[in-house]
Amino acid sequence: MLETVSNIRVRYAETDRMDVVYHSHYFVWFETARIRLLDQMGIPYSQLEAQGYHIPVLAASAEYNVPARFDDRLEIHLRMNEKPRARFDFLYEVRRSGEILATGKTVHAFMSPQGKGLRPPSQFIEKLDAMWLKSTSTQSPG
Questions:
Q1: Considering only the top CATH level, what class is 2-138?
Q2: In the chain, where are the structural domains located?
Q3: Distance in angstroms (rounded) separating the CA atoms of residues 121 and 134
Q4: Segment 5-44, tens digit of pLDDT
Q5: Among residues 16, 19, 71, 129, which one is catalytic?
Q6: Distance in Å from the first CA to the final CA of the chain
Q7: What is the reported pTM?
Q8: Which DSSP letter does residue 119 get?
Q9: Is 16 a catalytic residue?
Q10: DSSP letters spanning the chain
C-alpha cells in the first residue's frame, strides 16, 4: 500500500453561496495528491508526458459527509491499495482535524497521446516497486 498526504487551505473562491466548498474542487484536490505521489516517486507527471505517457481519469466518484468551508486547513489522504496493472485505483479521504469530510476514488490507466492503452513505463514500475517494498517493510504486522 502507498500513501501520501497533501495539505490544502480552502480559498474563498472555492466556496459557493452556501459558504461551503463547491463539490468539483474536491476532484482538483484529488489531482493535487496524485501529482504529489508522482513527485515523491521521483517521476513528475511532466516527465511522463515528455516520454509520451498520459494517465487520464477513467472514472471518478466522491461522497460528501461534512462540508468544508472557507479557510479550513485540510489534509487530502491518497492511498493506493494494490499495485497498478493495466488500470489502477486511488482512494482519497479529505480530513479536517482528523474528521473525514469526504471520500473519493479515481480509476486511471497509462495511455499514449492518441488514447491507446500502454503498459506503465519500466522506470515507473521500478520506483513503484521500491516504494511499495519500503512501505510494507515499515508497516507493523497484524
A1: alpha beta
A2: 2-138
A3: 20
A4: 999 999 999 999 999 999 999 999 999 999 999 999 899 9
A5: 16
A6: 14
A7: 0.90
A8: P
A9: yes
A10: -EEEEEEEE--GGGB-TTSSB-TTHHHHHHHHHHHHHHHHHT--HHHHHHTT-B--EEEEEEEESS---TT-EEEEEEEE-S--SSEEEEEEEEEETTEEEEEEEEEEE-B-TTS-B-PPPHHHHHHHHHHHHHHHHHSPP-
